[in-house]
Structures are given as C-alpha cells and as structure tokens.
Q: What sequence folds into this?
C-alpha cells in the first residue's frame, strides 16, 4: 500500500527555507514519505509549561544540535515571554497547549507542567501523533497512567518520563549506576525476597520542604496568570500564590509533596533493580501524621510489599541509619557498591549483563524503539508514588491488585484511582 | 529549647485535662477529641474518628458549623476531623452510619453560605456518598459555581439516580457548565441520554461539542454513529484527532455490547480511508483491541507498509496477540517483506517469546543473508528466545565474519548466563577459520566473565598471527593468567618487537605477578637475559616493587655495562614503594654523575610524595633530601613536596626558606598550600605562625587568585580585634566562675552563703567545663552555666561557638537570658534571638546559622538595655531591648556577668573577646578637676586616678551640678583602714550624713573599726540603713560600685552584689537606727561628693547616667 504523506507543512517549509538558503539540515519528512526521522534531520520540539522544570527542558532542546525548539506554551504570560526570548530562533509562544499539539510540524511534546496536567496533555499529544517527553511524576493518578499507556501504544508513540537514574548515570546518592545493582539482583547472590530501603543512609534523603499551607488567604490573581487554565482539570480553589508556581507540590490537587517531587527519581531505579517493571506492590502502609485534605505535609515511613515478598521501604525520617540499600537473605548492598559479600565484583563477572536499553530519547524518536524508561515501566514506578500518596491520604493499610490495578475490598480507596476532572477536561 | 518552656507545655496539658473533667456537653467533648492538635498517626486518627462517630449526629453538625471560608480563620482541625471521619466511615462503619453521615453532610451543604466550604463538603460526599446524596448534589448542579463539583461527586456516586439527575438538569444549567455535565453524562453510559446529547455535537462551543462527542461515543448507542463519523471531517488537527479517538471509542463500546462486526467495520474503514498515519495506527490499535487475534490478518498485511511508524505500530500490536500458529505466520511472513520490516518482525518475535519462531529466524543468520542488520536482529532474537541452549547457533553468527553479526553476537553473549556459554565460547575460539574481529570478541568475553578455566585457550591466542588478536589475548590474560603462565608471558614480552604488545604484556605480567604474589619468573629472567632484555625486566620489576625485587635491581646498579646500570637506576627512581627511598638518597648523596644525582633525587622525592607514610616521617626524609640537594631546582622540588603535607611542622620547614632569595617564591607557594584550606570543610591552619608566614608569603605570590585565597586565610585566622581583651586564655578557666542561682536570689544571699555557694559552683564548673585545644568546652552533662568573674555594663562581645546536632545553648548578658543558640536544623527560626523576651522581639531577623558541627561567630553589642547581635556577619537582632527575665517588673540590670548557657549538649566556644563600651557620662576626666568644686586641694589627679591625700588638707569635694535620679558608677581602692563617704543628693558643702545622704566608703575589715555599728558598714546610708558586708575586695584592689538613686529607692551594688536596696519612705526619718535626725533623707536632689576623713584612698572611672 502506498502511504500518502501526512505533512503539508513539510513542503511548505521546504520551499520557504530552501529559498532563504538558511537551513543546511533539511526537515525530516521532506526526504520522503517514510514517517520517521532520518539521522540527518532535525527533531522539532514543543515545550508545554515553561516554569522551573520547563526552563530545564528548553536547555535540553537548545543544547541538542539535532533538535529545534518551535513552540513554548504557558498560561503565565510573563513566563511565556521569558521562554520565547530564551528559546530565540523560530520558537513561537502559545497559551493553549491544544494549539501547540495541533501544529503538524512538532515531533516531540515536552510536558514539564505540574503533574495534574501530565496525563491529559500526554494523551492529547499521543492522539495527535506526537512523541512525549513528560516530567516526573508521570501522572497524578493511577487511572491517568493507564490511559496514557493506551494512547501512547495505540498511536505508536514514543514516551519518556524525565528521570534518568535507571539509565546510565549514577543512581542519585548511591554512588554507582543502577545497572550493576540490577545485575547483582539477577545473579541471585543476595537471595530472595529483597528489601530496598530509600533513606539518607542509602543515598536518598526525602525532602519535606514541599509542604502545603492551610488557611490560605485568597489573593488577587495576577494579570499575567490565567489561573483557571492553570488549574485545568483540578478543582477550583481560591487563588493564593503558594498554590501555584514553585510551591504547587504542597497540594494534593496538583502533586504529592516530596514524594511527588523525588519519588520517581528514587523509586523507579528501585523497581528496575528488583525487576518489578510489570507489577505493583500488593500491600502499602504508611506511618504518617494525619494529612490535611488539601495540603501535603511530611510523613515518617511508607512500606510497600510485592506479591513475592520483596519490599520497598520509604524511610522518611531516616530512622534506619544502618540500612543497606538492598538486602536479601544472603547479602546486603550499601552505597558505593559496598557489600558484606566478599569479592563481590569478581564473583559478579561470571553473570550476564542486564539487557541494554536506549538511554537517549532522541534515539528512540528516530529509530522508533522504546526508550529505557517508557510509558510501561514509568507507569509502574509512578504507581509506587500514587500508591504511597493514597496510603498517606487515607491513613490506612491498603491491599492492591497488581494486575487489575485496583484496591481490594476498599471501594473508597478506588475513588482515588480515577478522580473525575473539572469542567470539560477529560482524557 | 529553653527549659522554661517545658513547664509551660506541661501546665497547658493539665489545663486541657481539667477542662475535660469540668464540662461534659457534646461540644466540649468534640473539643476534647480534637485537642490533640492533629492525629500523630493512623491509629490516633481512627481513634478520634471512632469517638466522633459515637457522638454523631452532633459531632458532625458541630464540626461542619465551624467550617469557615478559607483565609478567614483556622478550621484545620475541623477539616481534618471531617476528612478523617469520611475516610473512617468509608472503611469501618455500618451502612446505616454511613447514610446518616452522608445526610448530615447534605444538611451542612444546605446550611453553608460559602462556595468553597460547600465544595469541601461536596468533596466529602464524593468519597462517601451513595444514592441518597444524589438529590442534594442534583440541586447544586443548577448553581453556576457549584455545578462542577457536584458533577464530580455524582460521577463518583455512580448510581442510576445520579445519572438521571444529570440528564434532567442538562437543559437548566448555565452554558459554562454544559460541557462538564455532558462529559459526566457520557461517563455514565446512559443510553437514554443519547438523543438529548446529539443536539450538542455541532454546538459552536468547542468544549461542548467535544464533550458531546465523547459522551455519545462512550455511551455507544447506535444513533451516535452518524454524528461521530461526521465530526471527523474537521479542519483543526486537535479536534480531528479527538474526533477520531471518540469514533474509535464508540467502536470499542459497540464491540463490548456484542456489535463486533459494526465495530470492526468502523475501524477498518478508518484504517483504510484515513490519510493520517497516526489515525490509521490508532485504527489498527482499535482493531486489535476489538478483534483480538482476528486482527492478525490485517496486521500481517499492514506490515507491508513502507511507513516505519506504521510498521512499528503493527509489531507492537502483534506482539501479544495469538498463539503458536500466529508466531509461525509471522515467521513465515519474514520471507516476503522488506528488510526494515524483517528487522521489526524478528525483534517482535523475540519479545513475543515463542520459541516456535527459532527455526525461521535462524535462517537469517546464515552467511548467505546479505543484510547484516537483519542477521544481527536474528542473532539478538535467538539469544532472547533460545538463551544458553542456542549458544552454538548464536556463535555461528561469527562464521561469516560480517561486522553487524559479530557486533550482535558480542552484545548477545553479554546477556547469556552459565558455564556452558564460557565453554562454548572457548571452544569456538579454537576455530581456525574465525576472523580476527570474531576472535577478539570471544577473547574479551572470556576476560569479562573471568573464565580462568579457559585461560589456556586464551594463552594460545598469544601465538596468533594477527598482533591485534595477540594484544586482546594478552590484555585478557591480565585477568585470567596465573603464576604458572608468567614464564611464558615474560618470554612473549622479551621476544616481541611490537611495542604496544610489549607494553600490554608487561602490564599483564605485573598484574598477574601481583595477584599471585610471585615474581620469581621475572627475577630469574634477569639473571639469564641479555643486556637489552635486562633493561626491560628491570623496568618490569620497578612496576612490581617490593623488597625482593629491589634487591635484584640494586645489584644491577653497580653493573659495568652502562646501559644496564642506567636501566637499574632508572628502575629504582621509578620505584612504586618506600623501599627505594633510602637507597636512592644514598646514591644521590654519593654519586659524582650529575645526571644520576638528578634522577635518583627526583625519583626519591616522587616516592616520598606519593607513598603513604606518616607526615613526620616524610618531613624527616625531606630534611635529609634537603641536605643532599645541590641545586635550587632540587630544593624547590623538596619544598613543593612539603606543600602537600598540611601540618604545622611542614609549615615551619617551608617557613625556613621564605627569606631565601632563590627559594622564596617556592616557599611562599608551599606555605600557601599548607596553610590554606583544601576544601569548604577545611579550615586550614589557624595558628598564629600560619598568619605570620602567610603575610610574608603573600609578597612573593604573583597569582591574583592565590593571593586572594591567602589573604582570606590570613583574615580567617582569628586575631583579637583592636581594643578588645580576651575573656578566655585558651589553656585554663582563669577569669571564669560557676553559676550561683540568679541575680535576684544572689542579691538575697549573705557573704558567707555566697562564698560557700560560689565554691560549690566553681567545683561543678571545673567538672564540666574545660579548656581543650584552645576551646572552652562543656561536656554536655546537665545545666551548668559558666560565668565571667567580672561584671560588664556596656560592651561588645565577640566569640565563636559550635554545637552538636540538636544542641542548645545561649549567651546570658548581665546575668539575664539570653542570646539564643540552638541547632538551626531542628529550630528553623535560627540562633541569635533574645529568646526570653515577651514584650520585645524574641526571634532573630533571619536565619544565619551554620550547620551544627561548624563554627558560628557572634558579635553582641549591649548598650544600656538594648542588644544588637550579628551572627556570622548577619544582623539578626537590631537594637532590641533585653527584658529582665528574673524580674519582669524590673529594668535590665545596668551591669552583670556574662554567662555561657549549658543545656545538656556538648558545646565549644573559642576566641571570646570583649570590649567595654563607655557607659553614661564621665564625671571625672582623668586629667583635672573640671566639673568639681569644694575643697579641691587634697584631691590629686594623676593618670586617670583621683587620689585623696589627707596630708594636703581636708574637706569635701562636690560636683558643680545637682543630680536627683541617676545611676552612678565608680571604682575605688582602699588602703588599710580607709574611711570616706559618697555624698548624694546633698546641698553644696552641707553635712552629708544628716543634711544630705552619705553612703559609707570604708574598710570595715580594719581592726580599728571592729566595733562599727551596722549602719556604718561600707555601703550603708549612714546612720539610717545598714548594708550587707563581706563583698569588698581585699584592701589594695579596685572595687566597682554602682549606686542607683531612683525616686525613693536607693540601691548599692558592690562588685556585682547588691548590698543595699532601700526605700527611703520606709526609713523613718525620726526613728533612724543611730537615733539622730536625718532631714537630708527627704531631699530629692543635690550634689554628689566625696567626703574626706583622715585616710587616703583612690577613685577612678566615675561615670553617671541621669534617669529622667
């Protein structure tokens, strides 16, 4: 069957820029109808949300010679203006992400918005045939995550979440990358089941400065911010600056405090190392002061147990000062790859390596091969955060069906899996 | 925290308990339940909820009635209690309790007047409500602002009534809420609504239009199709994508309802007709979801597309569909498709995990397969499907020698486990037909797996014709070889002409010999080798090090063959461990050959600087080397070596060369390096000598950055600021005393009591406080403040302090708490605040603390009652009044001791300096008697001291001015038996004791005054009020006296001790103890004067502050 080219703008750009003679690198699809990007083509990016994290994404794109930033989008006109200036070149500013997604020349949509927008924009972008580079945490609810998977896969899109500790860099504060730890786990030398402890002693200090405030006095909405749009699918609450830019993580409506902020950085590698990319814990229990229904506060401990007995301990108060990062019946592994197993490195040589993964998202975009941290495994690691959040909010032990991704015998808890969205918003 | 706060908390708890006993109505009970601030844990929260549940309906009513619009008051406890109750009931209560509670919430919703309070309550219903709540929520739908929240709650409730309510209200709601309602109706899948919804699919408002399309699609009623199909014909790409998604959602719903045929038709139609690749992919995806395995046929066809995006979508969908038959169909498909598609199918089959595909895939490895990338995909797939068992097939990928395959084999091998793999790889390595590239892959694999059992096969590869293979084998052996292989390796090293190979072999020899602790093969070879080989072997020994090896090398240093001797000396100077140091120093000292002198000395210095030796040993060696060094460049090297030893000995040694013209710049660099900090956590050397040498060194440093660093270090070395005196000498507790009670209590104590208590307090101080390494250290046990022996009035105090994590301390000023010190981590408000202030600010202006464990610097300025504090250079208290903690009704004491508070944690202080600041106005200028009148000739001024000399005459000295209310400070020094008096409020030249007021100044310890009346003791208001005795300093020492005359209250503080505190109104002018009349006591103003008797004495520092 002959495929007709989808892209009309390609020919438009071809003629315009060929005439101007400015571009030596020809936009991708001009070369032919073959739907994806030849190595010599530039990849066109759009960034939705240009606040704290978004500014970082502008850097990602500008620093990549093979990429071009064509659109930035924000509901804060001041931020948008600054981003357009920073991006320079052909970059255009938008307030409404739907207009950005409607542009046919965009290949990759970055979503460094607050988390309550992640799922919604991801699905819309995937349906419009864009690849998605989404900020962590992947989605604010478990249900949204499932819908992102469906949309990404049905539309044959590439998806990544913007954390990287399972990839090739050093695993946060641990001191070595994740891969050798995965190798150690696969070797079976530690025994089974395993326990991973996430606390300061193992290299991962939980940050609790993302706490919300209560009794916020309503303030006048600044002229530069479309607050209603900023809220989008989240319930309407009176404006106070603390709910928005820079401090939104302190409110359940948009995120989940330090757990939302660092959770995927900390937990995704743990999930990878344990080999739990296709499942979720079956028991979750939090030790926490009662949480306010609106404002997130700190907590002491969250324990998650998988069906086979493996555990992940989120030690918020850094109580287990002597904990190993990962511990099994036959051995322990501490930061810096220290272990109570003698000659560990030498013993490990005899074992096979974990499967390689693609660690450059642009490679995924070009080759259409799944990125190392994609919609599937990132959804599972985001589940860890969302399960943790729900256990904090509900203040009770939860049992979870890993396959159906629903709580067992707790209809009320299941209301947190799919939370209805405000106004016309839906996925 | 301050210990005083604890008791406050305790009493608050008590008050709460009492309240609980006294009242018993529900409201109070609710209060009681909520009193614990916020539930500390889940169990507590449940306990609170279960108690509240018992108290329902009143509890919920009370809680709801207390909700306030956000920002207008604190209803946190109530919100948290309601939320907690909602969650508790959701899990633990009976259906009846739940329903009652939901109705109570509904009641509260009706009563609420604030939108956001209502939304909060609706949010609770969203979590707890069922059918009974549909009605109240239905009413809210008509409210423009609340409609949305009600929609969400109704959706969560999910009952038929909820759905019906939405449909019925749709027509009545505000335009802005239509989309939300329509969307929600769609979620309910209520077919009855479809007709109504169809009206909206062409609505001009996009939100409404899209919501309606979603809704009719999700409901899946047949009547919707036409509209959905039509909706896809739209310009806007966003809307178009959405419309297609809805159309396919509709198909999915149809399929769910059993109308698979129609669903398939829709998707197939989209797939075949759409011109958008993404939409076509999505259609395929939908087909796969609807048809399951039956979609395979379409997928098998679709893979023929030349569009990569489509191909990828196809294989992703095919991956999980069907059984072995489908696996085989896909495998068969391989033959007919493009290479790109082949790669995708092979990769998909691998992920599919069905071994049935192995046979077909294997075909693509064969050397005949022209496309290496296809073959590579096949290799990877076979690895994944066949694992270890397929090892030989995988290895057969090497046979063609084609690069892509070889690369794939290498990557695949990495993923395979087991000894069988090693064995097969080793075996394959014996295949003579392999290309070098393939051999190298296998050799490297064996090395990576540390497959020592196959090292002979690897060793055999060192004889390969290709040097690259040899090189790979030699490198691999560095991990695999054992002692027994050394002889052969040595031979290989000596025989080859290829330097790269030779170097690699040497590395392998060194690694192996070290691992096996066996160097005899190398040693023996030295004896039999020719001269050229000898040099290489000596160099090898130099890389091995150790006693045994060095002896061998030393023997060769006397060789008659120059090249051998030369090699031996060079080996020695390249030696890796300390064994070569002495021999090298020896040779350097003895040799007449200047080249040898240079290389041996240099080698020696390199070793000293690199091997781990104690610093003192290194310095000793450097001294020896310095004695041997002939030339300046050698000396410079030694000094450079010194610069890596960061202690005072090295500093001193480097300092010896700072004045040497030829070496001064090197010495300066060394001094800078030694004394300046290495990193942020380092303080560098802080001794005075360091400051002195750094100042010198600075003159010889040209680099601006370094100069700056040096200056910074000089500045950081604490020097006593100008005009200050040190309160702590760094070696003992001279100038300090233990704490006795508080100023108020001390004032009540007699001299005997005071002496005894002070003795005890000093003992305690000596137990817990000590001078360590220039620091004043508290051992962390108990609460035992240390106090300055002296009192201070106005002053500037500078000091450094360091606490441990969670530590707590403070600086008491004039005996009063305090400038707060605590761990900024646990007390985010920070240190430096006047913690105990109640009326005036008690918190610091900003947080300037350094983390616990680091030094902090205080600069505290106290003038009158006001305190200014700088913490680490930041202003944290700006001229704030320090309240008198011990007696809140009283002004701050004008003078008093400085105390370092201890609070059960280890504390360190250092560099404690004080500068006394002028207080009040001076009455005496120290040079002459300006401002004084009366009989002035017996009062002699000399060097700041006012001396009374009876031999020059008598009479009294008076101020020229009158003073009524004032604080007077002066110092006086008695001689044995001195007697004088201080007149206050006395008319000029009047008889102070009666017509004015005389405060006695007298050595009442003198034998001749043993019969003195109490009202004649030092400090007494003569004849009227006796003072306490026992607080005068020994005769001949300066005493400090403070006199406060304020209204009718006269207070005398002698050397920090209140000896008189009298209200003149209470002193009857008639019945004075001396029985005489004292009309002067009634005066409110008059002169101040010194009254002469026949005894000499001296005064100085006479200052006054008038109270107005």
A:
């Amino acid at each position: 069957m002959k495929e007709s080219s989808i892209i009309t703008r390609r020919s438009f750009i071809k003629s315009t820029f060929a005439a101007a003679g400015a571009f030596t690198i020809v936009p991708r699809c001009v070369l032919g109808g073959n739907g994806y990007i030849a190595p010599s083509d530039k990849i066109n990016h759009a960034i939705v949300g240009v606040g704290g994290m978004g500014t970082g994404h502008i850097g990602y794109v500008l620093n990549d010679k093979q990429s071009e930033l064509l659109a930035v989008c924000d509901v804060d006109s001041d931020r948008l203006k600054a981003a357009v200036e920073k991006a320079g070149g052909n970059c255009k500013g938008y307030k409404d992400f739907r207009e950005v997604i409607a542009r046919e020349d965009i290949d990759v949509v970055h979503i460094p918005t607050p988390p309550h927008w992640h799922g919604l924009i991801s699905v819309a972008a995937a349906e419009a045939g864009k690849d998605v580079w989404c900020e962590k945490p992947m989605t604010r609810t478990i249900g949204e995550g499932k819908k992102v998977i469906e949309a990404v896969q049905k539309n044959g899109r590439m998806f990544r979440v913007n954390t990287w500790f399972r990839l090739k860099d050093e695993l946060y504060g641990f001191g070595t990358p994740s891969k050798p730890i995965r190798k150690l786990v696969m070797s079976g030398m530690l025994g089974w089941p395993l326990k991973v402890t996430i606390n300061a002693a193992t290299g991962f200090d939980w940050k609790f400065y993302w706490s919300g405030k209560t009794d916020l006095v309503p303030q006048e909405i600044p002229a530069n911010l479309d607050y209603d749009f900023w809220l989008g699918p989240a319930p309407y609450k009176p404006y106070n600056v603390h709910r928005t830019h820079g401090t939104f993580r302190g409110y359940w409506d948009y995120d989940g405090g330090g757990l939302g902020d660092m959770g995927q950085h900390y937990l995704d590698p743990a999930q990878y190392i344990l080999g739990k990319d296709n499942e979720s814990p079956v028991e979750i229990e939090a030790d926490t002061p009662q949480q306010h229904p609106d404002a997130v506060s700190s907590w002491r401990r969250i324990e998650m147990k998988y069906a086979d007995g493996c555990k992940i301990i989120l030690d918020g108060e850094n109580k287990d000062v002597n904990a190993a990062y990962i511990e099994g019946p036959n051995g322990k592994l501490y930061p810096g790859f220290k272990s109570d197993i003698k000659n560990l490195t030498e013993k490990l040589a005899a074992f096979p390596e974990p499967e390689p993964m693609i660690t450059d998202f642009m490679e995924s975009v070009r080759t259409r091969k799944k990125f190392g941290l994609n919609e599937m495994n990132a959804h599972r690691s985001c589940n860890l955060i969302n399960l943790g959040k729900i256990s904090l909010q509900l203040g009770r032990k939860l049992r979870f069906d890993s396959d159906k991704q629903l709580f067992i015998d707790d209809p009320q808890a299941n209301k947190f899996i799919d939370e209805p969205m405000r106004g016309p918003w839906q996925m | 925290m301050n210990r005083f706060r604890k008791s406050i908390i305790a009493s608050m708890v008590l008050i709460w308990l009492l309240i609980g006993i006294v009242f018993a109505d529900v409201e109070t009970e609710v209060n009681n339940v909520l009193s614990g601030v916020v539930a500390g844990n889940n169990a507590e929260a449940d306990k609170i909820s279960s108690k509240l549940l018992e108290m329902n309906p009143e509890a919920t009513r009370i809680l709801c009635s207390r909700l306030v619009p956000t920002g207008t008051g604190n209803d946190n406890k109530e919100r948290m209690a309601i939320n907690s109750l909602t969650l508790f009931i959701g899990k633990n209560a009976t259906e009846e309790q739940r329903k009652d509670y939901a109705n109570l919430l509904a009641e509260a919703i009706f009563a609420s007047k604030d939108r956001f309070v209502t939304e909060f309550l609706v949010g609770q219903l969203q979590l707890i409500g069922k059918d009974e709540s549909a009605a109240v929520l239905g009413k809210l739908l008509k409210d423009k602002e609340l409609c949305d929240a009600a929609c969400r709650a109704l959706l969560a409730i999910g009952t038929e009534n909820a759905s019906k309510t939405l449909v019925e209200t749709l027509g009545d709601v505000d335009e802005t809420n239509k989309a939300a309602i329509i969307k929600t109706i769609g979620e309910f899948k209520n077919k009855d609504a479809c007709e109504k919804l169809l009206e909206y699919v062409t609505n001009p408002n996009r939100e409404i239009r899209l919501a309606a399309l979603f809704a009719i699609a999700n409901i899946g009623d047949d009547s919707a199709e036409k509209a959905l199909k039509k909706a896809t014909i739209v310009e806007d790409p966003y809307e178009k994508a959405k419309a297609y998604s809805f159309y396919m959602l509709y198909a999915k719903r149809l399929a769910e309802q059993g109308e698979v045929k129609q669903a398939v038709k829709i998707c197939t139609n989209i797939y075949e007709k759409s011109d958008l690749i993404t939409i076509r992919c999505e259609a395929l995806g939908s087909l796969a979801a609807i048809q399951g395995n039956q979609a395979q046929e379409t997928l098998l066809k679709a893979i023929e597309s030349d569009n990569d995006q489509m191909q990828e979508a196809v294989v992703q969908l095919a991956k999980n569909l069907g059984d072995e038959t489908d696996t085989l169909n896909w495998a068969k498909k391989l033959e007919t498709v493009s290479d790109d598609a082949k790669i995708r199918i092979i990769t998909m089959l691998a992920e599919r995990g069905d071994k049935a595909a192995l046979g077909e895939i294997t075909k693509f490895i064969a050397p005949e397969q022209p496309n290496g990338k296809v073959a590579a995909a096949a290799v990877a797939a076979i690895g994944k499907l066949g694992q270890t068992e397929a090892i030989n097939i995988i290895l057969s990928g090497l046979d063609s020698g084609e690069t892509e395959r070889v690369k794939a084999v290498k990557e695949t091998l990495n993923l395979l486990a087991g000894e069988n793999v090693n064995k097969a790889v080793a075996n394959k390595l014996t295949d003579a037909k392999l290309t070098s590239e393939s051999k190298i892959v296998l050799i490297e694999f064996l090395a990576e797996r540390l497959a020592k059992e196959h090292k002979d096969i690897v060793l055999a590869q060192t004889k390969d014709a290709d040097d690259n293979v040899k090189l790979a084998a030699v490198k691999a052996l560095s991990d695999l070889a054992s002692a027994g292989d050394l002889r052969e390796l040595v031979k290989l090293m000596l025989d080859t002409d290829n330097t790269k190979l030779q170097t690699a072999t040497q590395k392998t020899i060194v690694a192996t010999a070290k691992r096996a602790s066996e160097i005899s093969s190398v040693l023996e070879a030295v004896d039999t080798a020719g001269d050229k080989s000898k040099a290489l072997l000596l160099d090898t020994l130099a890389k091995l090090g150790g006693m045994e090896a060095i002896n061998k090398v030393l023997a060769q240093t006397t060789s008659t063959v120059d090249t051998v001797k030369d090699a031996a000396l060079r080996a020695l100077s390249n030696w890796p461990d300390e064994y070569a140091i002495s021999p090298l120093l020896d040779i350097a000292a003895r040799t007449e050959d200047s080249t040898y002198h240079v290389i041996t000395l240099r080698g020696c210095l390199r070793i000293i600087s690199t091997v781990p030796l104690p610093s003192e040993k290194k310095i000793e060696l450097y001294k020896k080397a310095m004695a041997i060094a002939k030339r300046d460049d050698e000396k410079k090297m030694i000094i450079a070596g010194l610069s890596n030893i960061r202690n005072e000995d090295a500093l001193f040694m480097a300092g010896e060369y700072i004045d040497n013209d030829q070496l001064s710049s090197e010495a300066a660099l060394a001094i800078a390096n030694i004394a300046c900090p290495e990193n942020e956590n380092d303080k560098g050397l802080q001794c005075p000598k360091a400051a002195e040498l750094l100042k010198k060194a600075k003159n010889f440093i040209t680099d601006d950055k370094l100069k700056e660093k040096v200056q910074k270090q000089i500045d950081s070395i604490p020097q006593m600021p100008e005009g200050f005196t040190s309160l702590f000498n760094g070696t003992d507790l001279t100038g300090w005393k233990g704490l006795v009670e508080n100023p108020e209590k001390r004032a009540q104590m007699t001299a005997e009591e005071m002496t005894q208590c002070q003795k005890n307090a000093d003992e305690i101080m000596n137990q817990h406080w000590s001078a360590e390494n220039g620091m004043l250290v508290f051992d962390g046990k108990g609460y035992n403040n240390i106090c300055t022996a002296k009192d201070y009035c106005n002053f500037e105090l500078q000091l450094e302090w360091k606490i441990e994590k969670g530590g707590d301390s403070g600086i008491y000023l004039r005996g009063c708490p305090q400038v707060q010190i605590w761990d900024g981590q646990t007390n985010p408000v920070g240190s430096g605040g006047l913690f105990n202030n109640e009326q005036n600010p008690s918190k610091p202006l900003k947080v300037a603390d350094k983390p616990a464990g680091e030094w902090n610097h205080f600069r505290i300025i106290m003038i009158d009652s006001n305190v200014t504090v700088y913490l680490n250079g930041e202003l944290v208290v700006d001229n704030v009044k320090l309240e008198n903690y011990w007696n809140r009704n009283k002004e701050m004491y004008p003078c008093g001791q400085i105390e370092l508070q201890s609070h059960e944690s280890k504390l360190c202080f250092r560099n404690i300096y004080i500068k006394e600041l002028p207080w009040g106005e001076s009455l005496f200028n120290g040079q002459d008697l300006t401002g004084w009148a009366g009989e002035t000739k017996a009062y002699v001024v000399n060097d700041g001291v006012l001396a009374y000399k009876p031999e020059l005459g008598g009479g009294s000295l008076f101020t020229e001015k009158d003073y009524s209310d004032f604080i007077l400070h002066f110092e006086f020094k008695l001689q044995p038996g001195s007697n004088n008096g201080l007149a206050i409020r006395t008319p000029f030249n009047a008889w102070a004791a009666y017509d004015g007021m005389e405060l006695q100044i007298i050595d009442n310890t003198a034998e001749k005054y043993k019969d003195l009346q109490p009202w004649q003791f030092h400090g007494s208001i003569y004849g009227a009020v006796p003072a306490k005795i026992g607080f005068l300093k020994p005769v001949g020492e300066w005493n400090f006296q403070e006199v406060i005359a304020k209204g009718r209250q006269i207070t005398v503080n002698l050397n920090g001790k209140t000896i008189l505190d009298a209200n003149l109104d209470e002193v009857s002018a008639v019945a004075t103890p001396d029985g005489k009349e004292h009309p002067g006591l009634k005066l409110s103003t008059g002169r101040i004067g010194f009254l002469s008797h026949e005894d000499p004495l001296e005064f100085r520092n006479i200052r006054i502050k008038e109270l107005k």
Q: What stands out?
A: Confidence is low (pLDDT under 50) at residues 1-35 of chain A. The longest helix of chain A spans residues 375-394. Chain A touches chain B through 67 residues (CB under 8 Å). The two ends of chain A are 32 Å apart (CA to CA).
